[in-house]
Design goal:
Blueprint lengths: L1 H13 L1 H4 L5 E2 L5 E2 L2 E2 L4 H22 L1 H12 L1 H6 L4 H27 L1 E2 L6 H14 L4 H18 L6 H15 L3 H13 L22 E10 L2 E11 L4 E5 L6 H9 L6 E6 L2 E2 L5 H6 L2 E3 L12 H6 L8 H14 L15 H13 L5 E5 L7 H16 L3 E5 L3 H4 L5 E6 L2 E6 L1 H5 L2 H7 L11
Parallel strand pairs: 7-12, 7-13, 10-11, 11-12
Antiparallel strand pairs: 1-4, 2-3, 5-6, 5-8, 8-9, 13-14
Helix pairs in contact: 3-6, 7-8, 7-10, 8-10
Length: 458
């Protein structure tokens, strides 16, 4: 963004026939609205604050409710937002248009007030000032942007008596703000209020059952390959997963398990082969489109918004949208089903890993997927948490959700998996019933770090 601003500045300075060059364009007419000339003083101040109020209302309506939770998820965890089926490009563009609308209106107001169009408004210090507004005020609320803008106007005047030390003191004040209050003044005030004036948790929303299960679908993979330089992460995999199966994917580190999940989910494009879902090829589709076909996923490293409560983290994953009460009701239904009802209003950052993992699974389930991909869901969990998660996955599978689970812990998979597939060197070396696969010589050799004959890295 800063680079684009500097490019526009160079264009404005050098395109003299249009912009007037470094001197700009003088003699702009006074601001006139419906034949009424807006003079400096109270008329101009009322107009400015009226525009601020209109912008605050528009921003509140845009960022409120489900759109606000999706924006937060997109900002903090863009990969998770796409995997949930949220079109982040469209959402970003909409937010940009709304911001540009009010930014343009403010610019026009300034031009007609000072009656000069100058390229100075594109200079680097101005761009930094816009960022400083967010740093000072805080990005967690609309009030933060307004407070930051007001303070940014007055801070230079407060430090001006320091004369030659003005810039040093001003910079030190901003740095202190970043260190002491990384979420800005509004964030610091909000945390202080929660600490010293705690409010009772709001009542839990009424649960709303999820819609009927989607039509059964089969996942078919043929000749799938993905190479990273000379490393053949996935090297000609053929497999099929039928509706209702609970399939465990095992293998040593570097065997291609996570790459396989990323290929199916659309996070990585294959070099060769095909992936068919419900008879339709999905290889090459972007992540958001794959998610909207009924394939959901979780991640090896948790991708939750720590500052957002569990209920909103789950509700943010419903890409189909709908009214807030219904979506929150579905999120509450899933939290209750996964044993998390008492944690609905708790920020995810305060929860233990096992519960956080369940929140991520609930977010993946709210769009009612037919296939759920889980990448090492038991990583970092205690033995008790693993047992609880295995029971949860078993119940989900019995309710009709097809599971494909990548995991190192074989005992964990034996708690619910009806089939095991072992990978080594990017290839399938065993596929069958769990007890059969775990005792195959090739699987034992792979787990001991001895690659079977024919495996290669290119």
């Amino acid at each position: 963004t800063l680079v684009v601003g500097q490019m526009v500045l160079l264009l404005a300075v050098n395109w003299e026939s249009v912009t007037g060059g470094a001197n700009g364009i003088a003699g702009v007419a006074k601001l006139s609205l419906f034949g009424w000339t807006v003079e400096r003083g109270w008329p101009l101040m009322l107009l400015v604050w009226g525009l601020v109020a209109l912008g605050a209302i528009a921003a509140r309506r845009f960022t409120g409710g489900l759109t606000g939770t999706r924006l937060t998820l997109m900002r903090e965890q863009p990969m998770a937002a796409e995997a949930a089926g949220i079109d982040i490009r469209r959402l970003r563009f909409t937010a940009f248009l709304l911001s540009a609308l009010f930014g343009g209106a403010a610019g026009a107001l300034q031009v007609h007030t000072i009656r000069v169009v100058s390229p100075e408004v594109l200079e680097f210090p101005v761009m930094v000032s816009l960022l400083a507004i967010v740093v000072i005020g805080g990005r967690i609320s609309i009030a933060g942007a307004i407070l930051g803008a007001v303070l940014l106007v007055h801070l230079p005047e407060w430090f001006r008596p320091l004369e030659k030390y003005y810039l040093l003191a001003y910079g030190a004040a901003l740095l202190a703000m970043i260190v002491a209050a990384p979420w800005g003044l509004t964030g610091a005030l909000c945390m202080a209020r929660r600490r010293w004036l705690p409010e009772p948790e709001p009542p839990l929303p009424e649960t709303v059952p999820l819609p009927a299960a989607p039509a059964p679908a089969t996942l078919e993979i043929e000749g799938l390959a993905r190479h990273f330089g000379g490393v053949r992460a996935v090297d000609g995999i053929d497999l099929s997963i039928s509706p209702g199966e609970a399939v465990g994917i095992v293998g040593a580190n570097g065997s291609g398990k996570s790459t396989l999940v990323n290929l199916i989910a659309g996070a990585v494009r294959p070099d060769a082969g095909s992936i068919r879902w419900a008879g339709t090829r999905i290889d090459g589709l972007p992540t958001v489109r794959v998610a909207q076909t009924g394939i959901a996923r979780t991640f090896q490293s948790l991708k939750l918004v720590d500052g957002m409560c569990a209920l909103d983290n789950v509700a943010a994953g419903d890409w189909r949208g709908g009214d807030v009460p219904r979506t929150r009701g579905k999120a509450m239904y899933l939290l209750d089903r996964l044993g998390l009802a008492d944690y609905a209003w708790k920020p995810c950052g305060t929860m233990p890993p096992g519960l956080r993992r369940r929140v991520e699974i609930a977010r993946a389930l709210i769009a009612r997927p037919a296939l759920l991909l889980l990448d090492e869901p038991a990583a970092g969990l205690t033995g008790q948490e693993r047992e609880g998660l295995a029971r949860t996955l078993s119940e989900l599978n019995q309710a009709g959700t097809t599971l494909m689970v990548v995991e190192h812990d074989l005992e964990f998979l034996l708690g619910f998996a009806s089939r095991l597939i072992c990978l080594d060197g990017g290839r399938v070396i065993a596929d069958g019933a769990p007890e059969q696969v775990r005792h195959e010589p090739a699987v034992i050799a792979a787990w001991l770090g001895q690659p079977p004959s024919g495996a290669h890295n290119g």
